[in-house]
Amino acid sequence: MTTFEGSHDGKGMRVGIVCSRFNEFIVTALLDGAKRGLSAHGVSESNVDVVWVPGAFEIPIATKAMATSGRYDTLVTLGAVIRGETAHFEYVAGPVADSIAQIQLETGMPIGFAVLTVENVEQAVERSGPGAGNKGEEAAIGAIEMANVLKALR
């Protein structure tokens, strides 16, 4: 029996990050976490590109452009969709998640997903703080692992 597992070694990896400018104060904290996670696992800051888009709804198109560019080993998506008083949350959160999953399947590019879908600002702050539990950091480390496991499988 052969077992395939991805390591958290990001040395030499090129990583693209797509960030939503909407709820920027939350996304900036997620980005700080992602950078921290990448750096802790050997990814050089010079091998990281960050793209900012207007809102979460625009994340998939920028992600697909990066996934098909041939420049990256893995990608990370960062955003925050906070439920409000309208149906906007439903029209954005699900389609963004579905689109990122589809981009992975179409391109074979592993994509760490940290587009928060939360009920309120307090939940978003809790998931983007500087300590343990920063979802941007978790997504970045997961993206490294998936890039390595896919490399082993290929």
Walkthrough of the structure:
Its EC number is 2.5.1.78. This is 6,7-dimethyl-8-ribityllumazine synthase. Helix 1 (24-40) packs across helix 5 and helix 2 runs parallel beside helix 3. The chain has a single domain, classed as Lumazine/riboflavin synthase (Rossmann fold). It is globular and about 50 Å long. The mean pLDDT is 96. It contains five helices and four strands. It has helices at residues 24-40, 59-67, 88-107, 121-127, 135-153, and strands at residues 15-20, 48-53, 74-82, 111-118. The longest helix is centred in the middle third of the chain and has 20 residues, at 88-107. The protein has a four-stranded parallel sheet with strand order 2-1-3-4, sandwiched between helices. With 154 residues, it is of the alpha/beta class. The two termini are 17 Å apart.
